[in-house]
């Protein structure tokens, strides 16, 4: 195991106070310290990790990494910014595992999880052992762990990559969130390929402006961090990125000048069918996940396979045999005469694109939407979410993980966005179970009930309480009650 002095040598401005002790592990959280750990004190939105140093010492920390000298009996590594140091330190500590793995990083506002599953499915067609890290789970060597964050904190990320490597994993597909980039969780990683899906307003309370949000995402696409890129150009931000990056890249999108051109998207019973042109080669592919946007997600996965030199037949087989992604356009089918779809859409863009998909698929039927907005996150997007919800025929506005915010206030902010647009009937039902049941009881033949926001999630945080609630389960019971089975 590394010694503290080795870590000091990695960081030019670090000052080691005390002995170069051997370290067993490292963590940002005093509650996770075990004997021999290096506790790294970072500032969050509520606390300054430096105030938990006594707790860390009591739990047996061997040393601390701090932003200023502290009065403590154990050795300390003083650095100008613990946040800036943590990626480098964590990567070194676990043996720089990403350098021995073929890592594909996927970023963008929407489509990271879906694209990562598609890339995984493509890579599984080659003889690689593939691992996955993302919002829903991390998976390798037959193990499956539910995720807490989309992109783990640097110590957890590099520990996981090291475990994967030890278990024979060769390629890793991982989602890279903008928080992950901004909080230096991915510093010192090596990505073989970085993918940019798209960018639309989200997390602006965190990043401030779209420009800053874009800049954060763009930091993944620099030499040294990523070797090559696959860039979706269906948003202006992707076109801008493609014109700015200096690493090798290919593009995909609707315009004919892309390297991979997506056209003729159709929704068919088996999923989403589209045409993909690459150079002189044109093919029709069906990705078994509904939603026009999945044609683009699939094109991204094809481009990754192409850059990795995989055979086209294998790539296409990976796309066509990808299993569905939990909570992404997941249909509840119990023989009812209307459709019920649970989806993870929680950005205005995703909700709009979903409603368009449903309208294409069920022309003439009504779209009955159940939607809310998450608490403690991204207040700025709420009016725009309200406007997106207004594209439905009946919107039932409800709670979506309100945390310590008042659900009624969140819904009022959604409604505020609809003041200047023509709205369908809008009903407020803050109890999410009742909102879903109400929507299902309202649906008639040919209608679609679209329940958005939670997708695969199985709990809601209301105040400080965690309440078990799985939209799919609630919808299933409501449909069963409605049709009497
Ligand atoms: C909103 C946000 O940015 N949160 C970050 C923030 O957490 P925080 O404000 O809750 O931290 P805090 O409670 O003030 O604590 C500060 C520090 O003290 C430590 N602490 C705290 C209590 C204690 O007893 N002992 C202790 O050591 C904490 O571990 C932390 O390091 O500061 C922490 C330390 O720097 C970050 O880990 C944390 O990101 C957490 C992981 C988080 O949930 N972030 C979310 C928003 C996130 O990153 N999400 C993206 C996906 C977003 C998306 O695409 O939708 C993700 O990649 O998961
Ligand atoms: N390429 C895309 N363009 C627009 N919307 C999309 C796209 N791909 C997926 N979506 C929508 O976004 C929702 C979330 O998809 P997915 O989980 O793949 O994205 P994500 O980027 O991983 O989200 P998160 O950052 O919250 O984990 C889907 O349920 C779908 O409604």
TrEMBL record:
Residues 106-304 form the Mur ligase central domain. The modification N6-carboxylysine is found at residue 217. Its cofactor is Mg(2+). InterPro entries: Mur-like_cat_sf (IPR036565), Mur_ligase_C (IPR004101), Mur_ligase_C_dom_sf (IPR036615), Mur_ligase_cen (IPR013221), Mur_ligase_N (IPR000713), MurE/MurF_N (IPR035911), UDP-N-AcMur-Glu-dNH2Pim_ligase (IPR005761). Its EC number is 6.3.2.-. The keyword 4Fe-4S does not apply. It is found in: Cytoplasm. SUPFAM superfamilies: MurD-like peptide ligases, catalytic domain, MurD-like peptide ligases, peptide-binding domain, MurE/MurF N-terminal domain. It comes from the Bacteria. One of its GO terms (molecular function) is UDP-N-acetylmuramoylalanyl-D-glutamate-2,6-diaminopimelate ligase activity. Residues 26-78 form the Mur ligase N-terminal catalytic domain. UDP-N-acetyl-alpha-D-muramoyl-L-alanyl-D-glutamate binds at residues 28, 30, 150-151, 177, 183, 185. Residues 327-455 form the Mur ligase C-terminal domain. Its main location: cytoplasm. Catalyzes the addition of an amino acid to the nucleotide precursor UDP-N-acetylmuramoyl-L-alanyl-D-glutamate (UMAG) in the biosynthesis of bacterial cell-wall peptidoglycan. PANTHER family: MUR LIGASE FAMILY MEMBER (PTHR23135), UDP-N-ACETYLMURAMOYL-L-ALANYL-D-GLUTAMATE--2,6-DIAMINOPIMELATE LIGASE MURE HOMOLOG, CHLOROPLASTIC (PTHR23135:SF4). This is UDP-N-acetylmuramyl-tripeptide synthetase. It comes from Ferrimicrobium acidiphilum.
């Amino acid at each position: 195991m590394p010694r503290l002095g080795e870590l000091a040598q990695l960081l030019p401005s670090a000052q080691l106070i005390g002995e170069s002790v051997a370290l067993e592990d490292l963590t940002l959280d005093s509650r996770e310290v075990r004997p021999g750990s290096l506790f790294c004190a970072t500032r969050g939105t509520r606390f300054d990790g430096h105030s938990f140093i006594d707790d860390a010492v009591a739990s047996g920390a061997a040393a601390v990494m701090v932003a200023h000298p502290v009065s403590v009996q154990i050795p300390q590594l003083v650095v100008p910014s613990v946040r800036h140091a943590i990626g480098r330190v964590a990567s070194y500590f676990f043996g720089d595992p990403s350098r021995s793995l073929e890592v594909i990083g996927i970023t963008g506002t929407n489509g990271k999880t879906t694209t990562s599953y598609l890339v995984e499915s493509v890579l599984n067609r080659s003889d690689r052992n593939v691992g996955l890290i993302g919002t829903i789970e991390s998976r390798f060597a037959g193990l499956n762990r539910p995720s807490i964050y989309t992109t783990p904190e640097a110590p957890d990320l590099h520990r996981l990559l090291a475990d994967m490597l030890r278990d024979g994993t060769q390629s890793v597909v991982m989602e890279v969130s903008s928080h992950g980039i901004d909080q230096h969780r991915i510093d010192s990683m090596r990505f073989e390929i970085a993918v940019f899906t798209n960018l639309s307003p989200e997390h602006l309370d965190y990043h401030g402006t779209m420009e800053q949000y874009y800049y954060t995402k763009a930091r993944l696409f620099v030499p040294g961090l990523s070797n090559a890129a696959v860039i979706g150009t269906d948003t202006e931000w992707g076109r801008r990125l493609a014109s700015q990056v200096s690493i090798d890249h290919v593009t995909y999108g609707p315009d004919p000048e892309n390297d991979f051109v997506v056209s003729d998207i159709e929704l068919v019973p088996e999923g989403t069918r589209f045409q993909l042109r690459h150079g002189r080669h044109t093919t029709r592919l069906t990705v078994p996940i509904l939603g026009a946007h999945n044609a683009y997600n699939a094109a991204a996965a094809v481009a990754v396979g192409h850059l990795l030199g995989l055979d086209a037949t294998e790539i296409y087989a990976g796309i066509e045999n990808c299993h569905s992604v939990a909570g992404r356009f997941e249909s509840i089918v119990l023989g009812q005469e209307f459709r019920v779809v649970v989806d993870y859409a929680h950005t205005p863009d995703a909700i709009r694109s979903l409603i368009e998909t449903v309208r294409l698929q069920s022309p003439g039927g009504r779209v009955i939407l159940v939607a809310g907005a998450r608490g403690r996150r991204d207040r700025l997007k709420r009016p725009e979410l309200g406007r997106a919800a207004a594209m439905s025929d009946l919107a039932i506005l409800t709670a979506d993980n309100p945390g310590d915010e008042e659900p009624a206030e969140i819904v009022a902010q959604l409604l505020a966005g609809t003041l200047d647009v023509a709205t369908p009937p809008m009903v407020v039902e803050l109890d999410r179970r009742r909102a879903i049941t109400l929507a299902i009881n309202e649906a008639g033949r040919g209608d679609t009930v679209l329940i958005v926001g939670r997708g695969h999630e199985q709990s809601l945080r209301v105040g400080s309480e965690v309440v078990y609630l799985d939209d799919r389960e609630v919808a299933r019971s409501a449909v069963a009650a409605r049709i009497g089975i």
